[in-house]
Specification:
Layout (H helix, E strand, L loop, with lengths): L24 E2 L5 E5 L9 E2 L6 E2 L4 E4 L8 E2 L4 E10 L5 E9 L17 H10 L12 H4 L10 E6 L8 H8 L1 H12 L6 E7 L3 H10 L6 E6 L8 H9 L14 E5 H13 L5 E7 L7 E6 L4 H7 L9 E4 L6 E2 L13 E5 L3 H4 L10 H5 L6 H9 L3 H6 L10 H5 L6 H21 L1
Parallel strand pairs: 1-14, 9-10, 9-12, 10-11, 13-17
Antiparallel strand pairs: 2-8, 3-5, 4-7, 5-6, 7-8, 13-14, 15-16, 15-17
Helix pairs in contact: 1-7, 4-7, 11-14
The structure holds iron/sulfur cluster (SF4) (2 copies).
One iron/sulfur cluster binds next to helix 10 and helix 11.
Length: about 450
């Protein structure tokens, strides 16, 4: 098969050599764990426990409130100390359950696994176990697995691009547990009678591609696609295009193009939910960057403080200027490490130099370099101008709502302009206006 890709994109330094060969190490959390009730797209979960109650590892502590919502489970045994608003990695405060770890790790019985796995059982197990998209979006997976017309789905794509620089969590999952990922894909394929499965991997992971091809050589319905290494190859729209040559836009779901796309670790956790009845209580987090003393990949129980991750990674350089939750292209700057690891926490990165803070921003040179690399084919600089001038009509006419906020334009801008931020600001205004219009 040829190397698949999309038009546009950039090639940032990927820094993956710092952690790619570091096998995943399980860590124990600290004494206090914090479980936000909103760590996914959709309605927040509702606490099911009370202050003073003892909970077990794997116990449901937050129940989904509605279809687009998700369950939250404790990753330790211990006592509920508080239910109050706490800071989360994006800087907002969210209602959270605070549990004091008794360090016994006494586990609750897993959900019951029947002998026969019907479609209803598979969807129910995924919902019960609180599985969400672990590539960053945290969209509830049981919703994704229930499209309007399941017969119209002809591709299930496992997103193994991991195109964000520095992050090697998915890579390690594929190196260490490829069979479980393949089993997870086979489970998803049971839901869609007309679909074939494609595991799509960037070609900077040749060892993984070779091994997956070997492991799936007798699987009629599963193939491995090699993707060109390019940012943002792992965006849902662009991985769909690379694999199927089908295009989707902001008003469509992947299912409208006959596709279901799930991240590697999501598929791994579908396997655990359906085959083992185990809820999602931990994930692999990459700790890396030139400001981290010992870059590594850690298996982290949810609720663990980010400061514990730094400790486990041998500490942080005293000259660190920037700390990020997530990758350098789309991650969020962190102002405190006293926030919990949640379902969407793929990485903790620390850098000695804050390149963005030091960059001098100048006037737009009208060079067009932003538009040349925009994966959505947008005229990025013009969109930013429309946003800065508060010209909503012009922004919408120039298809500003198609922006995926990938930061590719910023990366290629010689004037160091924060185009993405301007576009994002106007997108939020348009979304708010449309919501208001609907409710009136
Ligand atoms: S952030 Fe938006 S405008 Fe900029 S490159 Fe990405 S899609 Fe294009
Ligand atoms: S790349 Fe930067 S300087 Fe060039 S047109 Fe775009 S915004 Fe202007």
């Amino acid at each position: 098969m040829s190397i698949l890709t999309f038009k546009g994109g950039v090639h940032p330094y990927d820094g993956k050599e710092l952690s790619k060969d570091k096998a995943v190490r399980k860590i124990l959390p600290g004494k206090e764990l914090v479980f936000p009730m909103s760590q996914h797209i959709g309605a927040p979960a509702q606490p099911t426990v009370e202050v003073g109650e003892r909970v077990l590892k794997g116990q449901l502590i937050g129940k989904a409130t509605g279809f687009v919502s998700t369950n939250i489970h404790s990753s330790v045994s211990g006592t509920v100390k508080k239910i109050e608003k706490r800071l989360v990695p994006n800087g907002s405060k969210v209602l959270s359950i605070v549990i004091e770890n008794d360090e016994e790790y006494e586990e609750i019985k897993p959900y019951e696994v029947p002998d026969k796995w019907t479609k209803e059982y598979i969807r129910e197990a995924v919902a019960n176990c609180g599985v969400v998209g672990l590539g960053g979006a945290c969209f509830p997976t049981h919703v994704k697995l229930a499209p309007k017309d399941e017969n119209a789905i002809d591709y299930v794509i496992v997103n193994a691009a991991e195109c964000e620089p520095y992050i090697t969590a998915d890579y390690r999952r594929l190196v260490e547990q490829p069979k479980e990922v393949i089993e997870g894909l086979k489970i998803v394929l049971k839901l869609f009678d007309n679909a074939k499965g494609v595991i799509a991997v960037e070609n900077n992971k040749p060892d993984v591609i070779k091994n997956l091809k070997e492991l799936t050589k007798n699987e009629d319905k599963i193939s491995v696609a090699e993707l060109k290494t390019k940012y943002p190859q792992g965006s849902e729209r662009h991985i769909i295009y690379a694999v199927t040559k089908r295009k989707i836009n902001s008003s469509m779901l992947p299912a409208d193009a006959g596709c279901i796309v799930d991240n590697v670790d999501t598929v791994y956790n579908i396997y655990r939910a359906v085959a083992l009845g185990k809820p999602l209580t931990e994930r692999i987090v990459t700790i890396s960057g030139d400001g981290i003393n010992e870059p590594c990949n850690l298996q982290v129980p949810f609720g663990t403080s980010h400061s514990k991750l730094i400790e486990e990674a041998g500490g942080i350089d005293e000259n660190v200027e920037k700390i990020l939750s997530g990758g350098p292209m789309m991650g969020q700057a962190m102002f405190t490490l006293d926030v919990p690891v949640i379902k969407g926490s793929s990485a903790l990165l620390a850098f000695k130099k804050d390149e963005i803070a030091h960059a001098v921003t100048t006037n737009c040179l009208n060079c067009g370099k932003c538009a040349m690399v925009c994966p959505e084919g947008l005229i990025c600089a013009k969109l930013a101008q429309a946003s800065d001038a508060n010209d909503m009509d012009a922004f919408i006419k120039m298809h500003g709502m198609e922006c995926i906020e990938c930061g590719t334009c910023n990366f290629n801008c010689p004037a160091n302009r924060n185009i993405t931020q301007s576009v994002r600001t106007m997108k939020r205004k348009v979304q708010a206006m449309r919501r208001k219009g609907k409710s009136e």
